[in-house]
Design brief:
With 106 residues, the chain is an alpha+beta fold. The protein has helices at residues 14-24, 40-53, 64-78, and strands spanning 31-33, 55-60, 81-86, 89-93. It is 38% helix and 19% strand. The N and C termini lie far apart (37 Å).
């Protein structure tokens, strides 16, 4: 379906996740996944948002099982770490390889 990118995954500590969760309260969803699902265009938008912002919110409009599948697919395709998920909103973090914007604790 989508090309699998070989990006190194970065495991976040509990302290880092807590810090990032605090930052997510201030941001709005940048991408919405709806009826058509994870199309190539939606994945391209997610990739672009992660490259630009590092920490993003995604609105997932579907039933619980569908959202869970989309979340797993986003994580697998982008190499981004899930920060948290509440209802129809999921937050992901991926450090920019050359110019990191966020300084994570410890």
């Amino acid at each position: 379906m989508f090309p699998i990118l070989k990006r190194p995954r970065m495991a976040l500590s509990n302290q880092q996740k807590k810090y990032l969760r605090g930052l997510t309260h201030q941001i709005d969803p940048v991408v919405t996944v709806a009826d058509k699902g994870l199309t190539d265009n939606v994945m391209a938008e997610i990739e672009q948002a992660l490259d630009h912002h590092e920490l993003i919110k995604i609105k997932l409009r579907g039933d619980r099982e569908q959202r869970k599948g989309w979340m797993n697919e986003i994580q697998k395709q982008t190499g981004a770490e899930p920060v948290h998920q509440i209802g129809q909103v999921a937050c992901y973090y991926r450090k920019h390889p050359e110019k990191p914007r966020l300084a994570l604790p410890g």
